[in-house]
Specification:
The complex is a heterodimer. Chain A is built from no helices and eleven strands. Chain A is mainly β. The model of chain B has no long low-confidence stretch (mean pLDDT about 95). The chains are: A mainly beta, B mainly beta.
Chain lengths: ~110, ~120
């Protein structure tokens, strides 16, 4: 059971928009800790996508955006591309574990 | 550009110690802080621990004090020791460089199987 909760899967056709949600609690996102997002392509290592709630990492296309409000965060992919098919993880800091916590991951399927 | 590469045994016997090394190129171990994350089969990412270049470190409490992370400045690498492994420790292991709480750069990962 992950500390941060993500929906297991989401799908969309090329060009469509998908939104991935991430829900935390009072010991992490609710304590005003930032949320970060990672993309893991099939067979690949995770890659930083978004950091500090809404800042795109170097080289990340602007079709990726994210936001955070209280204990909820979301990653928005507009103009979905076949190469976006991957697992996406949210991550934050948690004061109860004094370290990182991850969401369970959301599998994005491009139809 | 910083690159990380994990190395170590890919099979470890139950109750033994898993030992992995992460070698840096294109950057110095004296900067940032350094961590390990794993992904068990069919599951999501799990934080293992991290170590600051100042010497302080922290391991995931769920791993019950079985984690140790050390830095070797002379070799520009850092290492993970996970003691008393069980089959539940079978996973893909990643080393990473952190900055202000997020994982900036990741190694390609190494698969470790715990099996007799």
């Amino acid at each position: 059971q992950s500390v941060l909760t993500q929906s297991p899967s989401v799908s969309g056709a090329p060009g469509q928009r998908v939104i991935i949600s991430c829900t935390g609690g009072s010991s992490n996102m609710g304590a005003d800790y930032s949320v970060h997002w990672y993309q893991q392509l099939p067979g690949g290592a995770p890659r930083l996508l978004i950091y500090n709630n809404n800042i795109r990492a170097s080289g990340v296309p602007d079709r990726f955006s994210a936001s955070k409000s209280g204990t909820a965060a979301s990653l928005d992919i507009t103009g979905l591309q076949p190469e976006d098919e991957a697992d996406y993880y949210c991550q934050s800091y948690d004061i109860e574990v004094s370290g990182s916590v991850f969401g369970g991951g959301t599998k994005v399927t491009v139809l | 550009q910083l690159q990380l590469l994990e190395s170590g045994p890919t099979v470890v016997r139950p109750s033994e110690t898993l030992y992995l090394t992460c070698s840096l190129s294109g950057g110095s171990i004296r900067r940032n802080y350094w961590g390990w994350v794993r992904r068990p089969p069919g599951k999501g990412l799990e934080w293992i621990g991290y170590r600051f270049n100042s010497g302080d470190g922290k391991g995931n409490p769920s791993l019950a004090n079985r984690v140790s992370i050390s830095l070797d400045t002379s070799k520009n690498q850092f290492s993970l020791s996970l003691y008393s492994v069980t089959t539940a420790d079978t996973a893909f292991y990643y080393c990473a460089a952190l900055d202000a709480g997020y994982y900036v750069t990741w190694g390609r990962g190494i698969t470790v199987t715990v099996s007799s």
